[in-house]
Amino acid sequence: MYIRFIRTLLFALIVLSISAASFAQIGVAIRIGPPPLPVYEQPLCPGDGYLWTPGYWAYDYDVNDYYWVPGTWVMSPEIGFLWTPAYWGWGGDGFVFYDGYWGPHVGFYGGINYGFGYFGVGFEGGRWDGGHFFYNRSVSNVDITNIHNVYNTTVINNNVSHVSYNGGNGGISARPTPEEESATRERHIPPVATQTQHAQAARANPQQRASENMGKPGVAATPRPGDFNDRGAAPAKEAGGSYTPANRGANQGRAANNGAQPSATVHPHDLPPLAPSTPNTGNPKLDKKYQQQQQKQITKQQHERDKLQQQQDQEHLNLDKQKANDAQKQQVEQKHQQQTQQLQQKHQQQTQQLQQRMQPANREPSKK
After folding, report:
1. Do the Cβ atoms of 165 and 110 come closer than 8 Å?
2. Stated pTM of the model
């Protein structure tokens, strides 16, 4: 019990030290900014409920090189939640990475023009209405034969920059608006398991590295996370600007409380707390029924979390008794991360299915 207490306490201190509204992670500040954003076309939306998450340059510290994580369509983890993209920012003596997140409103993403509705501030590609996501056809590539939740609002985009970072030499000079600052204080959900796996697949592909593709990745966007070989995957049409790979060793920088690799949850007790959403069907009896079903589902999901956590704690104790080496411990932690992400994804799908089932019938967006 003493060993378990010490291990839990140390882990909690680590988690607290790396927590941030941007879901950033400990890493190395990079002295050279990422390449310009490539030019590419948005793949067709694969189905109702998918939201666009733009591509971005991440950094692989093992090879000291940027790599492109393709833009992709992702199912929102909760009805009403929108995606705030990741971005790079100047940290005083190096560039640091701020991971994206899901939340009720779009927060600050560096003023970067990622395109397809993310033109530097907010999101113009669609909106939630009555529990359904409606797509702005002037921005989002959707098939109206299969998706009827659409509208058409012209968006004037005066931001033509392909610069991929905020601050520093040549970077975007944008600062958070009061609304964006307020959004950072709302409840957030980090990238879901499919997004993390998508980024890991990009990192493992040498052709996605900037030193190989010179800022023009072969896979710039995919229809769904991980669909790198899908015929709907879009290559970059051109690089967003000139790019000359620097000496990789020169990119090494100071330690910082940020990193380029997507943050990953390892154990169930690291997951965000389960919380019910507010039903709004217009029918009080149905709302009450919905609340009861939500509570029943949350109780069951919490039980499954606790059960998996107990199983993983026991495996940690066994490792301590066996005096396992670092390689064995790392292997177990990787297994725990996979188990936790699979459970999180399962619960997100269950929650979304319940929310969709209990929402009012599909209707046109309210006119303002």
Report:
1. yes
2. 0.63
